Amino acid sequence: MAETSGESVSLPQVRSEWPRVLHPVDLSLLTLVPIALVGVFTLPLEVREQFVLDVTAPTVETAYASHYVHLNRTHLVGNLVAYALVAPVAYVLSAVSGRRRLFRTAFVTFLVAFPFALTGMQLVFPRERVLFGFSGINAAFFGLLSFVFVSYVSVHLSSSIDERDAPALLFFMLALITLLTVPSRAWMSELTLISAGIGLVYVGTVLLCAGPPDWGSLVDGWGGGRAELGIIGSGVLLLFPFLGFYRTFTGDGGIFDLYAHFLGYCLAFIVVYVSAHFFE
Fold first, then answer.
1. Collapsed DSSP state (helix, strand, coil) of residue 205
2. What is the DSSP string of 102-114?
3. What pTM was estimated for this model as a whole?
4. Separation between Cα atoms, residue 280 and residue 278, nearest integer Å
5. What is the maximal distance between C-alpha atoms in the chain?
């Protein structure tokens, strides 16, 4: 079983102690995002447009603030729905798996540092375009979810699965995202097969070294909440790519920026994985 920081919580205990599991500090953090996004959206359009990032003429202010700017209601609602789907589930899985501190650290990092990081990576391709919206940071929360889901499985469903093997899930999710979003003319089939192949090799190597997973806890936990919460987590993992990646327009002629979403997802997973196993 993977070692985690903090005390994991059994699901029967969770059901009777939700006030302790759902910590007020964490709930306050989770509500910051919708409050901030809606608050920024209430500003006059001409004010919001001043904080949109022009890739050819970036400023410190637009590098950060552009990630919280939406110019139309459709784009805002889409990002709020995506956030409401992925962030709370990532939080609950973290809290009951002893990874509460990791969630808090990741949350603050995503909101404070990731806007600058994602903007900096966008500047590698300084062609004329403007960027705005919370989608890249939503993708970062999806990267966190991909890690803490494996952590949850290792703690509550199968002690023979280790959260260190979470990169296998990363590659499977990249295969699904590629299949959904990358045009066939852009090596979609090849990229999908490569990502899925790496995931399969990773899983095969783990099985050869550790043997098949022990899923006894899955059967024992059915009806106690462990399996059900695992199903919810896996459902969000499969659903989010359709909501957070499979889009063409953001409304009013805005073009969906797949590159920013890939950056947010992969960078967040790497940061969370390294932080969990080298700094905690």
1. helix
2. HHHHHHHHHHHTH
3. 0.86
4. 6
5. 60
